[in-house]
Write a structure and sequence with these properties.
Oligomer: single chain
Structural class: alpha+beta
Strand order of the largest sheet: 12-13-15-16-17-18-19-20
CATH architecture of the largest domain: Alpha-Beta Barrel
Shape: rod-shaped
Number of helices: 15
Number of domains: 2
Largest sheet: 8 strands, mixed, barrel
Helix content: 40-55%
CATH class of the largest domain: Alpha Beta
Number of strands: 21
């Protein structure tokens, strides 16, 4: 793969990561939809404000035209021009009433005829427009007064507020639309308000007329963006939820692959990708091949040959090392069993075991099955205790080693001298061999302290009447030193590298 030495994440962490993977596309999608909804509302408001501005200008164009036609009549006798005033009201669809002004005083009205009412030009926005909540005729209906003056002459035309509120309601059906003239503003319900415009928090837009003194404001209340999304995007929300579920499933799957090498090794075990490699063990004096250590290799379909240190720790932590070793023993028996009748003396076959193998007595059955594949008396099966995990003595382990010895299986301590448990194993288990770690062998002729430790191990094995195997022999100097000091068996690249079954069997026939 290769595998890394990260521990499996706790269940709650994996659940959180899976939920985050599922929520991420949903949250991102909602953010994008929220932004899109905001843009759509702004676009809608822009069009609404533009259309309202256009409609109000058309109404005022009609009203202003009426005032222009009446302005020359200002100053004439009211009885003489009263019919002209009423004709304008009848002919103009938006004009509710008309008046003539002389010297800032209304003296003639289309409804009442002769009147006397003072006006103040400063009340009108830019001297032209005045928004009122009503007049004496219709006190509850808003009106928009258009004023046109020239010297002492003046004309007033009044636009009915009903037309204005109708525009606000129809054009701004889904929008808060307001008309502002001077200090006052008109809402869609036809009421005139004073003071500042109310806040329009969503997609607010204001448009001012370039020809008349009024402003149109459009916007939405708080929460309108979410309401818009709920009404316009239900299919997209369903799609986001679907993507969230898919993303969460993918995140969970990737976690299982990334953080659970056990799953990948289970697959590899079922596919028989764990295969035996054989490294020869030679006699210390004759250098004749008298045994082999069976090593496990992972033949990964994509990564090729995976080194043991990349997967063995995971196999031990997960407990898969037991079925993996069982598969390894069966494959080794298939390679070596057919040639065992040609062995002139018992051939030593070393297989590593760990603390996981010592939890029950199934190892005895596996060893019995392994031995049955060979000619009687043709091999010595040596189980090598590794020290990566401490084997704790118990009734089960003591019974296990007792039955193994009764079966003729020998016990060796692998990498002796490097682990804290080596001496304890010597005392607790009936050991037959010590295997000197290659780190001590490599220091022969280099480091005096390591050589003294090596000599002590060799002396200890002799006193305990134990066989001894030196690993990692790579030079002739190392070989000569070990042979001179009575080391029984040698193993290392000097005599042969680990090799696949077919290659080892072929080489074995030539030795």
């Amino acid at each position: 793969m290769p595998l890394t030495a990260k521990s499996r994440r706790p269940m709650h962490t994996r659940i959180i990561v899976t939920l985050l993977c599922g929520l991420l596309p949903v949250i991102l999608g909602c953010v994008i939809l929220y932004m899109q909804a905001g843009r759509a509302l702004k676009q809608s408001n822009r069009l609404t404000a533009d259309e309202a501005l256009r409609q109000f200008e058309l109404m005022l164009d009609n009203t202003a035209q009426s005032a222009r036609e009446l302005l020359p009549l200002a100053g004439q006798n009211c009885n003489d021009v009263k019919l002209a005033l009423r004709e304008q009201v009848t002919r103009r669809p938006f004009v509710r009433s008309a008046s003539l002004v002389w010297d800032d005083t209304i003296y003639c009205n289309s409804l009442f005829g002769e009147v006397q009412e003072k006006i103040t030009a400063g009340d009108y926005a830019q001297g032209r427009l005045l928004l009122m909540s009503g007049n004496p005729v219709t006190p509850d209906t808003a009106v928009l007064v258009y004023r046109l003056s020239e010297g002492k002459q003046g004309a007033l035309t009044i636009l009915d507020g009903y037309h204005l509120s109708t525009v606000l309601r129809l054009i701004g059906r889904n929008t808060l639309l307001l008309l502002r003239v001077g200090p006052n503003w008109l809402s869609a319900d036809g009421k005139v308000h004073g003071g500042a415009l109310p806040a329009l928090p969503v997609a607010e837009r204001e448009r001012s007329s370039s020809r008349y003194a009024f402003t149109v404001a459009a916007g939405f209340p708080e929460g309108e963006t979410w309401r818009y999304m709920a009404s316009e995007y239900p299919p997209l929300f369903s799609l986001l939820i679907f993507f969230g579920v898919v993303s969460g499933a993918i995140g969970h799957f990737l976690q299982e692959r990334s953080w659970s090498p056990t799953r990948e090794m289970q697959r590899a075990l079922a596919a028989q990708e764990f295969v035996p490699y054989f490294q020869p063990v030679v006699h210390g004096d004759t250098k004749k091949w008298i045994g082999t250590e069976v090593l496990m290799r992972w033949k990964h379909p994509k990564e090729g040959l995976v080194r043991p240190e990349m997967f063995i720790p995971f196999a031990e932590d997960s407990g898969l090392i037991v079925p993996m070793t069982r598969s390894l023993m069966r494959q080794a028996a298939q390679w070596l069993g057919p040639v065992s009748s040609s062995f002139s003396e018992p051939f030593h076959i070393g297989i590593n075991i760990t603390a996981n193998h010592c939890n029950d007595l199934k190892l005895v059955k596996d060893c019995r099955e392994f031995l049955s594949a060979f000619a009687p008396g043709s091999i010595n099966l040596v189980l090598e205790l590794t020290e990566r995990e401490l084997i704790k003595p118990s009734d089960v382990t003591l019974q296990l080693f007792e039955q193994l010895h009764a079966l003729g299986v020998m016990i060796a301590i692998d990498d002796f001298g490097t682990g804290h448990s080596s001496l304890g194993y010597l005392r607790q288990f009936n050991v037959d061999f010590l295997k000197i770690d290659q780190s001590f062998v490599a220091m022969i002729g280099i480091d005096a302290l390591s050589r003294h430790i090596l000599d002590t191990i060799i002396e200890l094995s002799a006193k305990l009447d134990l066989g001894i195997v030196a690993e990692g022999v790579e030079t002739q100097e190392q070989s000569d030193y070990l042979s001179a000091h009575g080391v029984n068996f040698l193993q290392g690249y000097l005599y042969g590298r680990p090799m696949p079954g077919a290659e080892f069997v072929n080489a074995l026939t030539h030795h």
